Amino acid sequence: MILFEKIILIYQLLMSFLVFNGLGLFWFLWLNGGTYGGHGIFPNLTVSEQKNMLFEKSLRAYHGKPQDKTLTLSDGKGLGVRVSVTGKMRFQFRYKIKGQNKRIDLGDYPDLSLRQARDVMEECRTWLAQGFDPKIRRDMARQESLVPVTVKQALDYWIKEYVEDNRATPDAVRLQFAKHIYPYIGNYSLVDTETRHWIECFDRIRRGDVKLGQKACPYTAGSVLQSAKQALKFCRVRRYAISHALDDLTRADVGTKQNEGDRILSDMELRELLNHINGRKMSFYLRCLCRFLIIYGARTGEVRLSKFDEWCTGQPKLDTFT
């Protein structure tokens, strides 16, 4: 009895040691013919499929070893490894579309590990199940990751495709971005740029920067935010680049709105303005514009957008305060 108890104790210690080192399960499966409850080490695969799977040890045995001919080692589910005569190994995924055999090169071993290759293979199988060609989707994903759209490219795209044709002052928008955004996050990938990166830019505008001699401009911070949000939405709708970093931000989060109210020139201010006009210290366009604004009390936009026939009738069709 004592001998039997010692054997049991040794067996328990041995099993504890094996389980602690991650070998207990494999040893147990080996004793049970490689199965447990009808399954092997990988429950999602049949026992026959598991017997055909590759392992790192087998890959290392082929890597860098010259071969008599090109070999193809299968791992199941379309994943395989092509071994050249020089011993170079490359993972490949094989599939069919409308009866045609297709193949994708996933990467070279050991730069791409066996586990990573299986993850890529599962991604390709998902695309295939969704009705997409894995080769095309993989090429598109790689192109986006290798040449990402930067913040500057996205904002410039909006300015070129929308602002220049629909805004009266595209240069002002461009200058705002050039001063407050481009120097700090302009070269960042738009996809990887987080909300905190944008907030740092807006806070710098709102608080000002003593070192750069920039005054605090809370209204400008809100204005730049609004322009940036419109730009990202424009790019997102056109599928030029996707970013939701600014979706939850409002003008109140980063700055303030412009104070609304009447602004009346004092007598001294009006006198200085007239002196500038009469002294020809302004362009011809601005001199004429200011004269109309002073005489009729109209809005700047009304004067700028007015037509010639509205002035030739003797009674300008302007919404004046006089």
Detailed description of the structure:
Strand 2 and strand 3 (89-97) form a beta hairpin. Residues 27-43 have low confidence and may be disordered. This protein has 322 residues and is α+β, with helices and mostly antiparallel strands. Helix 5 crosses helix 6 (134-146), helix 7 packs across helix 11 and helix 13 runs antiparallel to helix 14 (284-296). The chain contains 15 helices and four strands. The termini are far apart. The protein has a four-stranded antiparallel beta sheet with strand order 1-2-3-4, with helices on one face. The longest helix has 20 residues, at 218-237. The chain has helices at 2-20, 24-31, 47-51, 56-62, 114-129, 134-146, 151-166, 170-180, 182-185, 195-207, 218-237, 251-254, 267-278, 284-296, 300-305, and strands spanning 71-76, 79-83, 89-97, 100-109.
